[in-house]
């Protein structure tokens, strides 16, 4: 995944001038350093984290526990946890086939004459399970075979009660709508992500500076929140597992999924685009007073993002201002009132595994749970750090124990993290959308790293021999000058 963040360094921010950040760094699991191992609050290692759920069990046992009967229905937390993690061991359509087969076998749904009284006790539970599955993991039903298993098992109980047929019709209708919405994906939300090279006379479109479109920091923070929530909605919980999926030695000979987690990548690309957009907007003005004004504007936008609970945009803005072409503009920064900026940097300081940010995130999460207004419900986490946490949870614990059992305790913790994210992404944005600002955020041209450096050098002359040589090389390669 292309990006401009590196979370592996000892410190992102320092006092004084902004920390320099190279856009050649990338957000990838390999570039991250693990968080300190901490057991969940109030839980003992080796103890079940969900009442009735084992710490470990065979895959067959876990599948059996997912299957409802006339007198049993699995806990909702178990359903989510197992459906989320099971794809590490078995493909979803194969799991659905196993579940449907067990239902048919246990309830004797293949008999010519059914026990209608028994089916009426079992039927609502089966439909509830299928409803939860299709609602939370609709992509599991993209294959035709999955739809076949779904209609087959419900078709066997439908003669016992007409309500089952109607419920099935509603379920399929909702599923098709979800799949259609997911099929549209987030790709259409962005214009070209490719940065452009710097030109001495930028095209007219570049002259449409952001402050000319939106001069109110709070309004821009609201519109950034719109973009964040819109993009988050496309990310399915299963993508967090599939992003780090490895072949299971006890399962099939091939990984369960070969496709890239495109929605995760698209979201990281949005983060990186926002970083570059911030840097481009700062480097474009010819006069340092104007550049300082843009910097102070983005500081205010970042502060409003923090207040809203939009930590991902906050971090992107800070990262953009910390890119080397921006941080080297010493004369510009000398005109900036940086006190608010340093406070924001402190909040997102990576020291202690981002302890300040994590405290702020917990505060926003608590506010969301006790919200008195829709605005207070918003929690948009720093996404790359969320991926980092999930990655190291996955890497730090084995999927299977030495006896071959599935390490279900690990997946309960994974489900807790992913489940919290799913709750946050379902919040409806309460702010009125401004199409012109949204369009600008998606389509405004952004400079490449070289373009940013060249703009920076032309704004404030190189200060040392290294910068002078780089400036000369850039002018030669980009502008065709000697």
Automatic annotation (TrEMBL):
InterPro entries: Ras-like_GEF, Ras-like_Gua-exchang_fac_N, Ras_G-nucl-exch_fac_CS, Ras_GEF_dom_sf, RASGEF_cat_dom, RASGEF_cat_dom_sf
Top-level taxon of the source organism: Eukaryota
UniProt xrefs under SMART domains: RasGEF (SM00147)
Keyword Translocase belongs to the record: no
N-terminal Ras-GEF domain boundaries: 50-180
Gene3D superfamilies listed in its UniProt record: Ras guanine-nucleotide exchange factors catalytic domain (1.10.840.10), Son of sevenless (SoS) protein Chain: S domain 1 (1.20.870.10)
Keyword Transferase: no
Residue ranges constituting the Ras-GEF domain according to the UniProt record: 216-462
Keywords: Guanine-nucleotide releasing factor
Region feature (Disordered): 1-53
Protein name: Ras-GEF domain-containing family member 1C isoform X1
Primary gene name: RASGEF1C
């Amino acid at each position: 995944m292309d990006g401009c963040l590196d979370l592996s360094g000892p410190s992102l921010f320092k006092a004084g001038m902004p920390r320099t950040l190279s856009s050649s760094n990338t957000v990838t699991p390999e570039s991250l350093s693990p968080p300190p191992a901490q057991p969940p609050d109030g839980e003992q290692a080796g103890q079940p984290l969900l009442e009735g759920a084992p710490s470990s069990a065979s895959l067959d046992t876990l599948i059996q526990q997912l299957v409802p009967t006339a007198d049993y229905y699995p806990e909702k937390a178990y359903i989510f946890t197992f459906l989320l993690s099971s794809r590490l061991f078995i493909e979803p359509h194969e799991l659905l086939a196993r579940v449907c087969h067990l239902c048919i076998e246990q309830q004797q749904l293949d008999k010519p004459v059914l026990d209608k009284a028994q089916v009426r006790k079992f039927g609502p539970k089966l439909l509830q399970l299928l409803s939860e599955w299709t609602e939370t993991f609709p992509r599991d039903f993209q294959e035709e075979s999955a739809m076949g298993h779904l209609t087959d098992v419900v078709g066997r109980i439908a003669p016992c009660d007409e309500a089952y047929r109607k419920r099935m019709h509603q379920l399929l209708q909702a599923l098709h709508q979800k799949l259609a919405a997911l099929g549209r994906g987030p790709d259409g939300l962005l214009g070209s992500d490719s940065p452009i090279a710097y030109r001495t006379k930028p095209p007219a479109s570049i002259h449409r500076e952001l402050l000319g479109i939106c001069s109110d920091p709070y309004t821009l923070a609201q519109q950034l929140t719109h973009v964040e929530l819109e993009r988050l909605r496309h990310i399915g919980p299963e993508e967090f597992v599939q992003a780090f999926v490895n072949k299971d030695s006890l399962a099939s000979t091939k990984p369960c999924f070969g496709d890239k987690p495109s929605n995760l990548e698209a979201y990281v690309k949005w983060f990186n685009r926002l970083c570059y957009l911030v840097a481009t907007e700062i480097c474009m003005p010819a006069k340092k007073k104007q550049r300082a004004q843009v910097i102070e504007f983005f500081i205010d936008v970042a502060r409003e993002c923090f207040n809203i609970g939009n930590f991902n945009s906050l971090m992107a803005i800070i990262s953009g201002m910390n890119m080397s072409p921006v941080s080297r503009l010493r004369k510009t920064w000398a005109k900036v009132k940086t006190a608010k900026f340093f406070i924001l940097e402190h909040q997102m300081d990576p020291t202690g595994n981002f302890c300040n940010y994590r405290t702020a995130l917990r505060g926003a999460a608590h506010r969301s749970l006790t919200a008195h207004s829709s605005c207070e419900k918003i929690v948009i986490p720093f996404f790359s750090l969320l991926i980092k946490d999930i990655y190291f949870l996955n890497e730090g614990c084995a999927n299977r124990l030495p006896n071959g059992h599935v390490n279900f305790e690990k997946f309960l913790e994974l489900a807790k993290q992913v489940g919290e994210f799913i709750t946050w992404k379902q919040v409806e944005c309460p702010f009125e959308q401004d199409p012109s600002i949204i369009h600008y955020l998606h389509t405004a041209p952004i400079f490449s790293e070289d373009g940013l450096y060249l703009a920076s050098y032309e704004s404030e002359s190189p200060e040392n021999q290294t910068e002078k040589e780089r400036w000369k090389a850039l002018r030669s390669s980009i502008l065709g000058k000697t």
